[in-house]
Amino acid sequence: MTNVPTIKLNNGVEMPQLGFGVFQVPDLAECEAAVLAALKAGYRLLDTATAYRNEEAVGRAIQKSGVPRDEIFVTSKLWVSDFTYDRAKKGIDASLQRLGLDYLDLYLLHQPYGDTMGAWRALEEAYQAGKIRAIGVSNFYADQLKNLELTMNVKPVVNQIEVNPWYQQPTEVAFNQSDDVRVEAWAPFAEGQHGVFTDPAITAIAQAHGKTTGQVILRWLLQRGITVIPKSVHRERMVENMDVFDFELSPAEMQAMAALDRQESQFFDHRDPVTIEQIFGSSLKQLKE
Ligand SMILES: NC(=O)c1ccc[n+]([C@@H]2O[C@H](COP(=O)([O-])OP(=O)(O)OC[C@H]3O[C@@H](n4cnc5c(N)ncnc54)[C@H](OP(=O)(O)O)[C@@H]3O)[C@@H](O)[C@H]2O)c1
């Protein structure tokens, strides 16, 4: 079984460099089976969210796995419909309850919209009370991150953002890293879009190392100092995606990967007003209740 190295976050907590994501696994039985298989394969970081509606399944798999709780790094996220101080306090407890846990290892603000400061204050209090070992953000651009840091007391440890061969975000990654905020890549495979698994340049590198294209992509991200959370419901792919710690891309190969950047999100531009309306607009009614 692959042993995944850990990194130290800016608050001293150790986090595995590679984990397992469960976005778009809404069927709870399928999610539970996938997480159980992932834990069996050796994954020790799990990434779920209130918005994925599968925290219960993740919690059940943790319980059934027999893996000691303190060996698993559990991440979840607060959705924008809970971005007020009062709602966030309840949202944190609701995540804990659905997961069946008495603490979370990492809890993130899922999006940079609405009353992020109020929600962050609730996360800070839960952190200080020992309910959450580390707190962070997701989809925050550098200016939004800096604004939060300057306004609030506890600095985020992680910023989970889209990073994959088509959208490499070198400037954002460099800013987070220079600010001692760990970058965690979501959609490291761009969810397979634009033939990422059959791209000729990535295939050539894979062949040179006797690895798969998926393994090359994860290795490239790890060598950029980025944590990865690939998702798969297939056991053999879970094993494959972990087996990335026994080879290294050369500087020329890293450059060939860098040349693939299309400099455009494969999903949403978080700064586009239409995207903001789509993600945040439907929560406004709830927030006013
Ligand atoms: N913070 C955010 O806003 C945000 C947004 C999106 C995602 N995330 C997190 O990031 C995690 C990963 O992102 P993602 O799930 O969107 O996409 P992803 O990991 O880039 O891609 C997952 C897709 O790739 C396939 N796949 C996985 N390993 C493969 C392999 N070795 N060979 C071929 N195909 C493979 C999977 O298929 P099968 O499952 O059928 O194997 C699935 O269709 C999520 O699960 C979630 O935890 C966070």
Summary, kept brief:
With 289 residues, the chain is α/β, with parallel strands linked by helices. The protein contains twelve helices and ten strands.
Write up this protein:
Helices cover 42% and strands 13% of the residues. It is an alpha/beta fold and 289 residues long. The chain has a single domain (6-288), classed as TIM Barrel, CATH 3.20.20.100. The strands form two sheets. The chain has an eight-stranded parallel sheet. The chain has a two-stranded antiparallel sheet with strand order 1-2. Helix 1 links the parallel strand 3 (20-21) and strand 4. Helix 1 (28-41) packs across helix 2 and helix 7 crosses helix 8. The longest helix has 15 residues, at 85-99. The radius of gyration is 18 Å and the shape is globular. The protein starts with 5 loop residues before the first strand and ends with a helix. The structure holds NADP nicotinamide-adenine-dinucleotide phosphate. NADP nicotinamide-adenine-dinucleotide phosphate (NAP) binds next to helix 9.
CATH class category name:
Alpha Beta
Number of E-type strands:
10
Shape, per Cα inertia axes: globular
Q: What's the oligomerization state?
A: single chain
Radius of gyration: 18 Å
What is the helix fraction of residues, given as a range? 40-55%
Low-confidence stretches: none
How confident is the prediction overall: mean pLDDT?
A: 96
Bound small molecules, which ones? NADP nicotinamide-adenine-dinucleotide phosphate
Adjacency order of strands in the biggest sheet: 3-4-5-6-7-8-9-10
How far apart the termini lie comes to 49 Å
- Going by helix content, strand content and strand pairing, the class is alpha/beta
List the total number of helices: 12
Described by strand count, sense and barrel closure, the largest sheet is: 8 strands, parallel
Output the CATH topology.
Answer: TIM Barrel
For the record, the CATH architecture stands as Alpha-Beta Barrel
Kindly report the name of the CATH homologous superfamily.
NADP-dependent oxidoreductase domain
Order of helix and strand elements from N to C terminus: EEEHEHEHEHEHEHEHHEHHHH
Q: How big a fraction of the residues is strand?
A: 5-15%
